[in-house]
Write a structure and sequence with these properties.
By secondary structure, the protein is of the alpha/beta class. The protein has helices at residues 21-29, 34-42, 48-52, 54-57, 63-73, 80-89, 102-111, 149-157, 173-177, 186-194, 205-220; strands at 6-10, 93-101, 119-122, 124-127, 130-133, 162-167, 181-184, 200-201. Strand 4 and strand 5 form a beta hairpin.
Amino acid sequence: MAKKNITVLIDFDDTITTTNVAHIVLSEFAEPNWPEIRQQFIRGEIPPEGYFETPFENISAEKSIQENHIQQHAEVRLGFIEFNKFCIKNDITIVIVSRGLDYYIESVLNKYEITNIPIFAVPTEFTGKKMKIIPKYTDSNCNQWGICKCSVLEKYRKSSDVIIYIGDGQNDLCPARKSNIIFARDALLRHCKQENIDFFRFSDFTSIQTEVMKLIEENND
């Protein structure tokens, strides 16, 4: 039996990391009203760009200063570093797909000296103390701000026999529906239950690695 090509797509904030790194940045550098802007977005009173773009673009702090703060406070979830090494060893493609901003994702990966994972996130450009958000992974047929995660999934489906999706948020539901195996927590878990979608619950990457190993062993039988 031919070896199956496996691709793992992973959300970033609150999935790879133990906390939302965007909130780490905003709590330190944004204007004091950013929590209220977030609540306005949650209540549907402002569009996504009003929450995701405005508070960040109003920050006045150099990229290096923000990166230093991020690396001091952001942590990856238990077992992630080992899971990444496991994927490399077993020729499993591992990809980050996130509605977060590229610079803070890169900053966290650099902290742990992780260089092998492609990042599909929301691009930023810095000029001095100011940043500009430039979404480029959007799709005209997708209503998600910043990135169409399903478009990324379809890109990797062409070379994959099995798509594994790992996430925690509502915006992870669309790609999760199109995946073969789902690892879920928090909002994604609740949505999967509501739609009777099979999933594995996770709290760290140790349990995920165990389940993926079973998949590999089944493929080798």
